Amino acid sequence: MTKILLVEDHEELWDFLSRRLKRRGFDVVLAHDGQQGVDMARAEQPDIILLDMNLPVMDGWTAARTLRQAEDTARIPIIALTAHAMSGDRNKVIEAGCDDYHPKPVDFSRLLGQIDTALLRGEEG
């Protein structure tokens, strides 16, 4: 079963996403701030991380860079979830270490496609 680490601090969104992802057969683990996300990634070794960029304690930008710098988490695909939808924001999240970018509000079917693509890329790499 594919394990997804969802790092999101807004209860409505993590509740919505985790329920829908579980219904699709994913094993979902949750973290509610960036530091907890980094710790959970190291402990759980998920197949993919959905990372909000606007988080308390440690923001998503720092969390992504931290995950990329650690040998045990460097290859886990990360999809940034962000309300930042300005031009250039996609490049900023890629530079921070994310593999892809999904603007909020979440388009669930598009997000599923991005998850599939990231997982396939991970298998090839």
TrEMBL record:
Q: What Pfam families does the record tag this protein with?
A: Response_reg (PF00072)
Q: Could you name the domain of life of the organism this protein comes from?
A: Bacteria
Task: List modified residues, type 4-aspartylphosphate.
Answer: D52
Q: Is Phosphoprotein one of the keywords? A: yes
Keyword tags: Phosphoprotein, Two-component regulatory system
Residues annotated as domain Response regulatory: 3-119
Q: Which InterPro entries match?
A: CheY-like_superfamily (IPR011006), Sig_transdc_resp-reg_receiver (IPR001789)
**SMART domains associated with the record:** REC
Protein name (record):
Response regulator
* Organism name: Teichococcus aerophilus
